[in-house]
Write a structure and sequence with these properties.
By secondary structure, the protein is α+β, with helices and mostly antiparallel strands. It has seven helices and five strands. It is globular, with a radius of gyration of 17 Å.
Length: about 180
């Protein structure tokens, strides 16, 4: 029982730390951003409940700075998708991919697990807000969220955000 309790306390401490960092980010004028890939890749170590899962991370294209508010929402959506995959899918393999492209930024979380019950996918599950939260965050940032799932193929969560919204474009002013 003690190891489980220690694990719960560790996850709670991480949540408190994330909350503090989010508040600090709102108050800070520092433009340095954290690396989204590193942050989301760390979820595997945070859980460490199933070391037998083959977790792969892939970045396609040249990483570009993201708008801070968009990056935070992408992190929250990706975190929820990864937590669901690690905790509920019974997968042997989970893949996280972030693709930087001209038309859009795409994030994908795929697993080879048992899939999501179609009724839960359509209507959610009473007392659980993960899927609904992902959809709400996606709508708030002008993105598109697609979730494909089946018992034989596992689940794929795909988030697409137009590059004009996702990427931080520095404005250059010229003096003449």
């Amino acid at each position: 029982m003690k190891p489980r309790l220690d694990r719960v306390l560790q996850v709670m401490s991480r949540g408190i730390e994330e909350g503090r960092n989010a508040i600090q980010g709102l108050r800070s004028s520092d433009s340095a951003t954290t690396d989204l890939v590193i942050e989301l890749s760390g979820i595997e170590q945070e859980l460490s409940s199933r070391p037998d899962i083959d977790f792969r991370v892939n970045v396609v294209g040249r990483q570009q700075p993201l708008n801070a508010s968009i990056q935070e929402e992408i992190y929250r959506i990706g975190r929820e998708a990864l937590l669901n995959a690690f905790c509920h899918s019974r997968a042997k393999r989970i893949e996280f991919e972030l693709e930087y492209a001209d038309p859009e930024l795409q994030m994908r979380v795929r697993d080879d697990g048992i899939g999501i019950n179609p009724q839960v996918l359509r209507n959610g599950r009473k007392g659980h807000w993960g899927l609904a939260g992902m959809q709400e965050r996606t709508a708030r940032i002008g993105g598109l969220l697609k979730i494909a799932s089946s018992p034989s193929n596992g689940t794929e969560v795909r988030l697409s955000i137009p590059s004009g919204i996702a990427f931080h474009r520095s404005t250059i002013t010229s003096k003449t």
